[in-house]
Specification:
By secondary structure, the protein is an alpha/beta fold. It has helices spanning 5-8, 12-23, 43-51, 64-73, 109-118, 137-146, 152-155, 167-174, 197-203, 208-212, 216-233, and strands at 33-37, 56-61, 79-82, 96-100, 125-131, 180-192, 242-254. It folds into 2 domains: 1-131, Rossmann fold (3-Layer(aba) Sandwich), CATH 3.40.50.150; 132-161 and 188-244, Orthogonal Bundle (DNA polymerase, domain 1). The protein has a 7-stranded mixed sheet, sandwiched between helices. The radius of gyration is 19 Å and the shape is globular.
Length: 255
């Protein structure tokens, strides 16, 4: 699966805002060891570097393209490493493990949260944000088109997993590992510009595995079919703005 960091960052402000909202609920710390797990092109890491200037900060991602973007355009003084979140464990205890919009891609991530909490010192913080909009029209349309007769042989199996649990489930997973747990949801009503802004948005994230399974011409046809349905589900207003509500779940668990 290959992500394009430039496509992802075409909505940099909207994608970084949840990271800032998550970070606002994390306590201050001095000279912390911090890992940005799933750092992407470094936009969330920049927030961490500004908030914790004395920290020993590491950005981890499994995409060489995103890491190259982070190395060239991200904050200085960060150690950038390639790693798989599903199997990663810190080589030293971390005071903060921060993850913005990664774990929806990782199966059975609740068990990973429990494991990571057990590696942290007392007072250590696990801070996670994940999209939880997989039953909204944007994602239902992806699944419906992918499972249609035209595309099912190549794409149907990609959309069957419900990747993010209800907030209450994460409380149950973490309650035996944390002294305090703060979980909340926010729906961002995003005002997007452009001809097909919802399609452009999901091309940078949710559509990635689908597009990777198709050749160039198939990608064009698949996107054309999605665009028609997405315009119906998210009509553009007379002012040219398309409203795209987007639900996210936030977790701040302190050891």
């Amino acid at each position: 699966m290959s992500w394009n960091p430039d496509v992802y960052l075409s909505f940099a402000g909207e994608r970084t805002r949840p990271a800032a909202d998550l970070l606002a609920r994390v306590p201050p710390g001095e000279r912390w060891r911090i890992t940005d797990l799933g750092c992407g092109p470094g936009n969330s890491t920049a927030l961490l570097a500004a908030r914790y200037p004395a920290a020993e900060l590491t950005g981890l991602d499994n995409s060489p393209a995103r890491l190259e973007k982070a190395r060239t355009e991200g904050p200085p003084g960060v150690t950038w490493r390639e790693a798989d979140a599903a199997s990663w464990s810190p080589d030293r205890p971390q005071d903060l493990i921060f993850s913005n919009a990664l774990f929806q891609w990782v199966p059975a991530h609740g068990a990973i949260f429990s494991r990571l909490m057990e590696t942290m010192p007392l007072g250590g913080v696990l801070a996670v944000q994940m999209p939880r909009n997989f039953n909204e029209p944007s994602h239902r349309i992806i699944r419906e088109v992918a499972q249609s007769e035209k595309w099912a042989s190549k794409l149907a199996a990609l959309g069957l997993r419900e990747p993010v649990l209800p907030p209450e489930a994460y409380f149950e997973i973490l309650k035996g590992h944390a002294a305090s747990i703060d979980i909340w949801e926010t729906v961002y009503v995003q005002a997007l510009n452009g001809e097909d802004p919802v399609l452009d948005w999901i091309k940078g994230t949710a559509l990635t595995p689908y597009l990777a399974a198709l050749d160039h011409r198939q990608v064009e046809l698949f996107l054309e079919e999605l665009a028609v349905k997405l315009r119906e589900a998210y009509p553009r207003s007379s002012s040219g703005i398309t409203l795209f509500p987007f639900r996210r779940v936030f977790i701040v668990a302190t050891r």
